Fold this sequence. Notes:
The structure holds two protein chains of two kinds.
Chain A: E1 4-7, E2 10-13, E3 19-25, E4 31-38, E5 42-51, E6 54-57, E7 64-70, E8 73-78, E9 87-94, E10 100-102, E11 106-110
Chain B: E1 4-7, E2 10-14, E3 19-25, E4 31-37, E5 43-49, E6 52-56, E7 59-64, E8 69-74, E9 83-91, E10 94-97, E11 101-106
Parallel strand pairs in B: 2-11
Antiparallel strand pairs in B: 1-3, 3-8, 4-5, 4-9, 6-7, 7-8, 9-10, 9-11
Amino acid sequence: DAGITQSPRHKVTETGTPVTLRCHQTENHRYMYWYRQDPGHGLRLIHYSYGVKDTDKGEVSDGYSVSRSKTEDFLLTLESATSSQTSVYFCAISDHSFKQFFGPGTRLTVL
Amino acid sequence: KNEVEQSPQNLTAQEGEFITINCSYSVGISALHWLQQHPGGGIVSLFMLSSGKKKHGRLIATINIQEKHSSLHITASHPRDSAVYICAVFGNEKLTFGTGTRLTIIP
Lengths: 111, 107
């Protein structure tokens, strides 16, 4: 299995609070991705990174920001969480082959 | 219209049956992925293909680039194959996903 972890695995928070999710890899892969998974929508790309300090938006980036200061870490921040951001968040990594390896997921509930 | 369409959305079959899940897409791609998501939530990449056919154990994936269509077949299905199967197409460094096919194999 690819070395990819996510933390926390579960989080319950209140509307308006900031939340940061962490994705950590030990594979030295160039590409990292944040997705959210919601019933009826499948997986949707939030943001992705193609190198340290190089990031770009996905299809559902509003309300989210990311940072990648090191190859191994990709952080997803919800500046002010809303109930619509209740979801399961997956991180994924890939190398030049673009085969993706997924983390275990983080279940976020915003009350 | 979604860029990636899967059919059927749900499929229930008896153990031992031959299973086919279909995926059609409307955009240009450089590769197509088939993923498996078990009830526990973990997502595993089964295949990545850009042409022809790939086989791994009882799983076979095919793609027809001209028709923009791919199929995932499972031979001699088993209850442990019960999962959600997701088709995703890769282009411009990003994946676009179908909504998945929920497969249930009854013993």
